[in-house]
């Protein structure tokens, strides 16, 4: 796990176009858009502005005036899992989506244009984990990194890494770096020599009610204070704070059940 969001611009921004396969955006679809804005606004200091409406009502979350994430509202009759979805950059979303399909994945949405912002698709890998594909136009994606309230890492939790890592390598051109350990199944995905995401094979420890899924980590200034806020705002602490090689981390869920991790990186 590391800060991987692309070349930093002024004030910690990430204005450069991402290389294919680089995480570039995260989005969340919920039933209660206003309540979700209130939760993340209080937790991460986000403000909101309207986003492209092709998929229904949605907003862009801003931190310090710069885009960091998207939140949309599900139709009342849609009962889909509430989950954060990472998007990976592509120079040709149609080709990337077709490659995912040919490699055993499923394309559930698109490819379609998101107004002037870019072109997108939502797909799932052969094990069922959902991810997005983003071909940037006017909007390059997450425009701020490395400060509290911004996404800093995406990690796939799945049964085992070998077959699914091959899928992502073929679709996005990643280089793989497996962790050599008898009891730790982990592969780091690299773009241009930089780590950009991880795949963690957890076997039967995978939650039965979720299956394979991507987990987004958000930077925070103080993990313990964040956990108290999560509880006060109606969320849940799923895994308490613990030390890791990359900082102090914890896993939580928002009031609608969207799971994410928070990390306090070493200063």
> How would you name the oligomeric state of the polypeptide chains in this document?
single chain
Helix percent reads 10-25%
Structural class: alpha+beta
Largest sheet: 8 strands, mixed
Low-confidence stretches: 2-15
Instruction: Give the number of DSSP strands.
Output: 16
With strands numbered from the N-terminus, the spatial order across the biggest sheet is: 2-3-4-1-5-8-7-6
Please, could you describe this protein's structure?
With 267 residues, this protein is α+β, with helices and mostly antiparallel strands. The chain has two domains: 10-136, 2,3-Dihydroxybiphenyl 1,2-Dioxygenase, domain 1; 151-264, Roll (2,3-Dihydroxybiphenyl 1,2-Dioxygenase, domain 1), CATH 3.10.180. It has helices at 33-44, 93-102, 161-172, 223-232; strands spanning 23-30, 47-50, 58-63, 66-73, 84-89, 106-114, 118-124, 130-136, 151-158, 175-178, 185-191, 194-201, 213-219, 236-244, 247-253, 259-264. The strands form two sheets. The protein has an eight-stranded mixed beta sheet, covered by helices on one side. Strands 10-11-12-9-13-16-15-14 form an eight-stranded mixed beta sheet, covered by helices on one side. Strand 11 (185-191) and strand 12 form a beta hairpin. Helix 2 runs antiparallel to helix 3 (161-172). The longest helix is centred in the first third of the chain and has 12 residues, at 33-44. The protein is globular. 46% of the residues are buried. Residues 2-15 have low confidence and may be disordered. It comes from Streptomyces fuscichromogenes. Residues 22-136, 150-265 form the VOC domain. InterPro entries: Anthracycline_SecMetBiosynth (IPR052164), Glyas_Bleomycin-R_OHBP_Dase (IPR029068), Glyoxalase_6 (IPR041581), VOC_core (IPR037523). This is VOC domain-containing protein.
């Amino acid at each position: 796990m590391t800060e991987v969001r692309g070349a930093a611009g002024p004030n910690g921004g990430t204005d450069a176009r991402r290389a294919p396969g680089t995480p570039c955006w995260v989005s969340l679809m919920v039933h209660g858009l206003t309540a979700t804005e209130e939760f993340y606004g209080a937790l991460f200091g986000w403000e909101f502005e309207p986003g492209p409406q092709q998929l229904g009502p949605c907003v862009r979350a801003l931190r310090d005036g710069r885009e960091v994430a998207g939140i949309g509202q599900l139709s009342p009759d849609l009962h889909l899992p509430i989950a954060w979805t990472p998007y990976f950059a592509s120079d040709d979303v149609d080709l990337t989506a077709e490659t995912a399909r040919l490699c055993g994945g499923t394309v559930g949405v698109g490819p379609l244009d998101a107004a002037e912002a870019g072109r997108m698709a939502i797909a799932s890998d052969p094990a069922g984990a959902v991810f997005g594909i983003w071909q940037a136009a006017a909007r390059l994606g997450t425009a701020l990194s490395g400060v509290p309230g911004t996404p800093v890492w995406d990690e796939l939790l799945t049964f085992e890494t070998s077959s699914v890592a091959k899928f992502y390598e073929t679709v996005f051109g990643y280089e793989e770096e497996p962790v050599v350990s008898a009891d730790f199944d982990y592969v780091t995905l690299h773009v241009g020599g930089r780590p950009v995401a991880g795949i963690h094979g957890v076997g039967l420890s995978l939650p039965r009610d979720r299956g394979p899924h991507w987990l987004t980590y958000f930077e925070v200034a103080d993990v313990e204070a964040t956990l108290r806020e999560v509880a006060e705002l109606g969320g849940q602490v799923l895994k308490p704070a613990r030390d890791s090689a990359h900082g102090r981390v914890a896993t939580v869920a928002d009031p609608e059940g969207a799971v994410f991790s928070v990390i306090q990186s070493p200063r």
